[in-house]
Amino acid sequence: MAWLVLVLAGIFEVIWAFAMKKSEGFTLLIPSVITIIFMLLSFALLSWSMKSLPLGTAYTVWTGIGAIGSFIVGMVVLQEPSNALRMLAAIMIVSGLVLMKVSSQ
Prior knowledge:
This protein is mostly helical. It has one domain (about 1-105). It contains 4 helices and no strands. It has helices at about 1-20, 30-50, 55-75, 85-105. Helix 1 packs antiparallel against helix 2 (about 30-50), helix 1 packs across helix 3 and helix 3 runs antiparallel to helix 4 (about 85-105). The two termini are about 15 Å apart.
């Protein structure tokens, strides 16, 4: 259950990061409110997952999901550039997340 909660926390991190980008420096109300709500939810779920998962594992996986999710949203939704080096970096992050999960069992 802790892993499911941690993945949800990571997804919420992607949502608040995207909303923060859309808030234009917290000058737009709705994206700013979405940012704060999902940030609080993400932190709360991360905290809950840390009750049974090691700190290093939980935090690394949470930030990795946020990083990869934001990378994908940036490319797909915001048309940010993608190139071989950026893709390799993303693959390395995902590989690290998989290794962290496997090593925690």
